[in-house]
């Protein structure tokens, strides 16, 4: 089959963008942060304190914004690692970095990105802005799609305990984010939205623990003892759940490990009969409706 000029052009462009993707190495990275608030400071702290030898960071350039946070980074990691952009000109941060974390508020995104110029040869951007979409980021930055990423994480990345969600998939970017506490690459933004749901079930988890506490206190257990014991016991349970979590069968195995006819098995049966486990499915549907803007999650 003869290739048309258009398909030839497309293959040349994809060859160029592919070779670009390979330029991003995982050694001596220079990270720039647009915004230096809660999440930017947490990511910079997690990466700057990483002992991962596969991924090395030579420098971090941060906005002077949220001065107490940027100053804290400088005092903890020193001028060899951290530079605060004193001029307030975000272009300076771009000019000295190759990986740019976009950490401003949703309302600030358009203004911040439209005032700077990205370099196709050098820049990869990773947006933390919850409302940003890949097409919007590509259009605002004029970067090729292979250089534009969206990431979701919690501030616990500062202590390497936050598992990041990344879209689109990229082995190189995933490697860069691994020191933050793990990273899952998502096939699409749609899949990423569904991956966000367990983090939205943090509140209910605490509510279960509070329910346990109230019940124990009502039944005569001293509150301090109950609280300490619940916190420590659930930690042990969570550690077992995490141990082999790379295997999707692991949770089923843990359920099957419960003593046949024992009290844990009874509790599963009772809660199933009472509809408690099914109600989680329904709550997850409602959370998804709200995350995708298809409803207010109430009905
Ligand atoms: N907090 C979280 O747990 C979390 C988790 C995941 C994602 N996110 C996302 O991350 C983004 C930031 O959230 P955050 O909680 O870190 O908010 P934040 O603490 O308010 O941080 C926003 C930062 O942007 C700075 N900024 C504002 N305008 C700027 C400009 N023109 N140039 C450079 N910097 C500018 C602010 O500086 P000033 O303070 O000086 O105005 C501040 O440092 C949001 O879009 C949010 O959706 C947050
Ligand atoms: C709880 O489970 C036990 C053992 O399976 C069963 O005997 C009991 O009827 C169940 N109670 C409820 C309320 O489901």
Automatic annotation (TrEMBL):
Residues that coordinate or bind NADPH: 90
Keywords: NADP, Signal
Gene Ontology molecular function: pyrroline-5-carboxylate reductase activity
UniProt xrefs under InterPro entries: 6-PGluconate_DH-like_C_sf, NAD(P)-bd_dom_sf, P5C_Rdtase_cat_N, P5CR_dimer, Pyrroline-COOH_reductase
Domain Pyrroline-5-carboxylate reductase catalytic N-terminal intervals: 31-129
Domain Pyrroline-5-carboxylate reductase dimerisation: 197-290
Signal peptide (UniProt feature, chain positions): 1-21
Any GO BP: L-proline biosynthetic process
Pfam families referenced in this protein's UniProt entry, alphabetically: F420_oxidored, P5CR_dimer
Gene3D superfamilies to which the protein is assigned, alphabetical: NAD(P)-binding Rossmann-like Domain
Protein family per UniProt: Belongs to the pyrroline-5-carboxylate reductase family.
UniProt-recorded name of the protein: Pyrroline-5-carboxylate reductase
Native species: Triparma columacea
């Amino acid at each position: 089959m003869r290739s048309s000029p258009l398909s030839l052009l497309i293959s040349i462009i994809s060859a160029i963008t592919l070779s670009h993707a390979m330029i991003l190495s995982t050694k001596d990275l220079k990270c720039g942060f647009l915004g230096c608030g809660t999440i930017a400071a947490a990511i910079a702290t997690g990466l700057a304190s990483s002992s991962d030898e596969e991924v090395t960071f030579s420098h971090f350039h941060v906005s002077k914004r949220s001065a107490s946070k940027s100053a804290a980074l400088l005092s903890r990691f020193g001028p060899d690692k951290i530079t605060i952009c004193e001029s307030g000109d975000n272009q300076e941060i771009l000019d000295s970095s190759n990986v740019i974390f976009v950490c401003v508020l949703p309302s600030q995104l358009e203004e911040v990105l439209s005032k700077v110029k990205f370099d196709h040869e050098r820049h990869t951007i990773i947006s933390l802005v919850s409302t940003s979409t890949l097409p919007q980021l590509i259009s605002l930055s004029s970067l090729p799609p292979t250089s534009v990423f969206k990431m979701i994480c919690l501030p616990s990345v500062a202590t390497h305990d936050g598992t990041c969600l990344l879209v689109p998939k990229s082995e190189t970017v995933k490697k860069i984010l691994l020191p933050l506490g793990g990273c899952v690459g998502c096939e699409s933004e749609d899949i990423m939205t569904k991956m966000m749901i367990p983090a939205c079930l943090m509140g209910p988890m605490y509510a279960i623990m509070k329910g346990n506490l109230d019940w124990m206190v009502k039944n005569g257990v001293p509150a301090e003892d109950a609280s300490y014991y619940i916190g420590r016991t659930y930690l042990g349970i969570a550690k077992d759940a995490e141990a082999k979590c790379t295997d999707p069968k692991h949770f089923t195995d843990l359920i099957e490990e419960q003593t046949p006819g024992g009290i844990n098995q009874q509790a599963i049966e009772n809660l199933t009969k009472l509809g408690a486990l099914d109600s989680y499915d329904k709550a997850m549907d409602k959370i998804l409706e709200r995350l995708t803007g298809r409803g207010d999650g109430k009905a």
